Amino acid sequence: MAKSDKQEALVTEITPQSEDFSRWYLDVVRRAELTDYTEVKGCLAIRPYGYAIWELIQQALDRRFKATGHVNAYFPLFIPEKLLMREAEHVEGFSPQVAWVTRGGDEDLEERLAIRPTSEAIIGTLYSKWIKSWRDLPVLINQWANVVRWEKVTRPFLRTTEFLWQEGHTAHETAEEAQEETLKILALYKEFAETELAMPVVDGPKSESEKFAGASRTYSIEALMRDGRALQAGTSHNLGQNFAKAFEIQFQGRDKSLQHAWTTSWGVSTRLIGGVIMTHGDDSGLILPPRVAPYQVVIVPIPRGNWQETVLPRAQAIKADLERNGVRVMLDARDEYTPGWKFAEWELRGVPLRLEIGPKDIEKSQVLLARRDTREKMPTPMDGLTAAVVRLLDEIQNALYARALTFREEHTQRVGSYEELKAVMEGRPGFVIAGWCGSAECEAKIKAETQATLRNIPFAGGEVAGACVVCGKPSSGEAWFAKAY
Ligand SMILES: [Zn+2]
Fold it and tell me: Strand pairing partners for 251?
């Protein structure tokens, strides 16, 4: 295959978003080398480029967890059946998705072991040993781990049988402190998603029917993808004393009485990578926000004449200077591909900024910078280049956030009646804001008739006196509905 044919093939390999968004997504994750399928259904390998995005997400979150007093620990993968059974709602919620180990080596196990779908049960039993007095509180532990949930329908990053995540598990002396922790983490998730992923989210409580199995209250951050579907991007649960009672997490209070602790749990997962892809990507592939881009700049030398003696050393010097200033750089000096092929390839892989340098640029003491998000091309002097790149990366990060926010605003509608809600749900997808009385029946009716679920009741909405769009009874707040991943 000639080089130009190869380039053509590469571009046409991605289905346009407007033609089939779901196909586009699958094409992008495969062609950008983020994941690959394996022999085990629903279990995907995360390839180095995809894993590098996850590592940047991890680092950014881990910094925030530690800055708010949390520490990391690790708990076992296996949970004995009797432990998982202790919290009734929890068992009921998770049992359809649990994978079991029944044999070890040559022997059948006396008690089967669950592969953790989440770790409340195993951590709860340990907290009951570790927490004896009010002086032992709060306990603020996070775990980075894999979990398994047996899924029937899977999609790379968004829903897989095994996935990577972090799960925080905290225990507190009072109900107020547990609630404060739950909301503190939700705010941390929101700030993280908006700052690092350039992904605007709405934060607020979920309804009773959408809460975590065993929680008193669940809060979420919800983002809007480019196909108009919502993505739950993180959850924070106030578990009340439910798990403390089930796992006997008790302590002697300041008044010497024996009390149950108040606990929380919270998590985000590799699903966030799917969120980034579907928030920013376009028909040419990925667009990565600079803060989570494995390579923020790709340098493509233009091979003319004796470029390896002239252009290449300059490109290497630029790379070194950028790296000294904390910029992640890929220098693509491969001789077997044309610059045009490389442009398309790194565009597809979402590198925020391309830096072209050839013999003519060197004569003029400049380079050509090209933005992935706007495709704008800017001749930039070599003098002060690193500072200009750092500034541009910041600008791209902000521009991506602004663009995503505008998209969300353009795809969010407030409705005053149930007919209107149904009509909107049949039209252009997005968020629909509607009065809701708080009843599970009205919520279920909307879900059954429009497939839209109640995402959450955003804090930013505040108290709005109105009426439920389904039953007409008074509502005190507005809920956001959408078809969701
Ligand atoms: Zn109602």
Answer: 259
